[in-house]
Amino acid sequence: MQDGLTIKQALASPTCQHVTVIGSGFIGLDVVEALVNHGKDVRLIERAKRLIPDAFEPEISQLFYHELEQAGVNIHLNESVEAIVGDHQVTSIKTDQDIYPTDMVICCTGVKPNTEFLHNTRLERLSNGAIIIDKQGKTSVENIWAAGDCATIWHAQLQKPVYVPLATGANKMGRLVGENLAGKSLQFEGTLATSCVKVLGLEAGRTGL
């Protein structure tokens, strides 16, 4: 919440006109849309070869590219950020290809389970650190439960636990685990990883594998 309020306050300053967004996932594109609507000069940097690479096929990525390009967004694909330059205040951003002046940098580079502190425990985790749970939210250790973006979620089609950090699944699993801890014995039948995104005049959704 505080980060959001800080960004809002900074954007209100007349000296903040050039904003760089790192990452073109769902959150990154939402941020870009908001910045465009606020009249900012927006630069979007994505290290992959196309926009929203983990969610949609190349044809959909291309449609979003043209939508943002027509709105005046400076898009940089296949480019990685190396440093944010500035003393107490950002002045530019350095990538593996160039240095760009900017008044603000907003990082939208995805999420990672914050579970390093569990390294020497008996809790089973995926390679990315996500705590593996079953349909009830139980972990591999008795009387320890988990839910949300730190944990896996059962996939209805794959029939196995996967890491899908979406608010919908986190909300459902949090409620289910809470009820199970209160004495119920509920099971989550599985996610289809359904998600959607709207950017300016373009909307897209996906579900399934």
TrEMBL record:
<dbReference type="InterPro" id="IPR036188">
    <property type="entry name" value="FAD/NAD-bd_sf"/>
</dbReference>
<feature type="domain" description="FAD/NAD(P)-binding">
    <location>
        <begin position="12"/>
        <end position="161"/>
    </location>
</feature>
<protein>
    <submittedName>
        <fullName>NADH oxidase</fullName>
    </submittedName>
</protein>
<keyword id="KW-0274">FAD</keyword>
<keyword id="KW-0560">Oxidoreductase</keyword>
<keyword id="KW-0676">Redox-active center</keyword>
<dbReference type="InterPro" id="IPR023753">
    <property type="entry name" value="FAD/NAD-binding_dom"/>
</dbReference>
<dbReference type="InterPro" id="IPR050260">
    <property type="entry name" value="FAD-bd_OxRdtase"/>
</dbReference>
<dbReference type="Pfam" id="PF07992">
    <property type="entry name" value="Pyr_redox_2"/>
</dbReference>
<dbReference type="GO" id="GO:0016491">
    <property type="term" value="F:oxidoreductase activity"/>
</dbReference>
<keyword id="KW-0285">Flavoprotein</keyword>
